[in-house]
């Protein structure tokens, strides 16, 4: 044992290994004793029943069902061909042996070659496994033929031209990724966008020359050679023919380095201008007065000098706050109020006149009815 050679006495790993070995030895002894008791009881039973060795072997195989120590060749050598054939015929149906198999265990195309495992019932349903396998194969159901009307409509030129093209929609949820058709016969199905896109992309008639060339390795190599040739022409010919001032402007305005350099230069120029042109006291006072004026009239003022739009808003606000403008606005509001009151009064008078006219008609009808009733009473 490796732990005894490497570890000293009293080590916990060595003690655990020795304890495990002792337990395994005890389990082996218990299993050997159990097997010996079983064999002795079986031999005693067979001797008491006065069974022959063949009958005892058959009885033991039928009871155990899956005995792995029995070999077909050993049965032939021990019991003989006729006895082994009778034994296997007696075991037919109980241990998974197919009917009609000879004692030589020739291979059948339906069930494969004969092995030691095929002599006994496999795990599971023994009765179900005892039959031939081809009897339990599920037959595929054939799809029903289309109706005659649909076939006639599709075969006719009018029906064939009028039918819409139907596509299948792949459903990955609930169908295991199988293709599932949507819609019944004669109903136009939804067009699969992915299939339509693929057909559109793979259409050679709609491809450009570069796309057609890129479909083959020779075309890709040719395109790479054209790009390299254009690069050489640009560097050696076209770039040298351009004006230096134009190249400088393009480099400054359109390249990343040029745009960054322009931004840095503008920031530095603004800082230098603020430092070089410091405002005097008059400019500072003027700036403060402008801020107060704009805040008084509620007009926002930018950090730089105010523009004409801001000054126009200040002018309109200041004009609206003059006494003359306020008086004009008050008079306009008073005239508008009088017009509204006059219109309201006329509307009320018209309503009263309509009500009086309706009431007068009712009173005349009542007086007429009263005169008629009095005349009837006098008569």
TrEMBL record:
Basic and acidic residues biased stretches: 317-352
Protein name as annotated: Uncharacterized protein
Biological classification of the source: Eukaryota, Sar, Alveolata, Dinophyceae, Gonyaulacales
Superkingdom per UniProt: Eukaryota
Species of origin: Alexandrium andersonii
Region annotation (Disordered) ranges: 137-187, 317-379
